Amino acid sequence: MELIIYLLIGAIAGFTAGLFGVGGGLIIVPILYIVFTQLHYDPSVIMHMALGTSLATIIVTSFSSVSAHHKKGAVLWSVFRHLAPGLILGSFLGAGIADLLPSQGLQLIIGFFALWVAYRMFKGAKAQVDTSKQLPSTAKQMLAGSGIGIASAIFGIGGGSLTVPYLNRHGVVMQKAVATSAACGLPIAVAGALGFMWFGAKAQVDVPNTIGYIHVYAFLGISLMSFVTAKLGAKVAHQLSPAMLKRCFAGLLTTVGLYFIYQGFSKLF
C-alpha cells in the first residue's frame, strides 16, 4: 500500500514537472511531508527525509531531461564544467546545514522560497536577456555554483529556479540557460542526496526502509512514475497557454509556501 502511494506521488510530480517545465522538487517535498506525517514518522526528521528523498529522485529524472537537451545541442558544457565543482561542494554542504536546522526552520525557509518562485512566475519575471553581457571568471562561476548548490540542497530542488536566472543575468539566452540548468541539476542531486545519506546515517534515523534521510521505497516509486509521466505532462503543456500555465503553477506554489509557513509558525508559537 505504501509503495502505491509513492507511485501516485511520482505520477503527480512527473506530470507537473513536464506540464510546467520545472523540476518536481517543490511538488515532491510538500507531498512527502504530508505522507510521512500521516505515517507517524518522527516529526523531527520528516522535513529532512522529504528533502533528501526529493533530491535522490531528481538524479533519475535529470538524466532524461539532460539527454533531450543535449540532442538539441543546447547545453553549454563549458559553463557546466565551471559551475559543477561549486555545485557539488555546495550541495553536500547544504545537506549538512539542513541537518543542523530544526524541522520548523526548514518549513519556514522552504515556504518563503516557494512564495518567491511563485512571485517570479506570476509576474513572468523573464526580462529580455542582454546577450552582450559575459559570464564572469571561472572562479566566480565556481563560487556562484557553491551558493546555488547550498540553497538547492536546503530546498530539495535541482536548482533550476536559481541557475536559470543566474545564467540569464550574464547573457545566456533562455533555451540554453534552461538546458544548462538541467545538466547542473545532476551534480546537485547526486551530491545533495549523498549528503543527506551521510548526515542522516550519523543522526541514526529510526524510520523503516531508509538510508540516512532517504526513504528507499519513496525514492523508487517516485523515480519510476515521474520518469514516465513527465513526457505526458510535456505533451499536455503544448496544448495550453504558456501564460496560463505559469499563473496556475504560481498559484500552486503560493499554496505550498503558505502551507509551510503556517506549519512552521504554528510549531514556534
UniProtKB/TrEMBL annotation:
The family note in this entry says: Belongs to the 4-toluene sulfonate uptake permease (TSUP) (TC 2.A.102) family.
Q: Where in the cell is it found?
A: Cell membrane; Membrane
* Transmembrane helix is among the record's keywords: yes
Record PANTHER family: MEMBRANE TRANSPORTER PROTEIN HI_0806-RELATED
Identify this protein by name: Probable membrane transporter protein
The uppermost taxa in this organism's lineage are: Bacteria, Pseudomonadati, Pseudomonadota, Gammaproteobacteria, Moraxellales
What membrane topology is annotated for this entry?
Multi-pass membrane protein
Q: Does the keyword Calcium apply?
A: no
Q: Which Pfam family is an annotated match for this chain, by its short name?
A: TauE
* Keywords per UniProt: Cell membrane, Membrane, Transmembrane, Transmembrane helix
Q: Which InterPro entries match?
A: TM_pro_TauE-like
User: What are the TM regions of this chain, as residue ranges?
Assistant: 7-33, 45-63, 75-98, 104-122, 143-166, 178-199, 211-232, 244-262
Please give the GO cellular component terms listed in this UniProt entry: plasma membrane
User: Main localisation, per the record?
Assistant: membrane
Q: Which organism is it from?
A: Acinetobacter tandoii DSM 14970 = CIP 107469
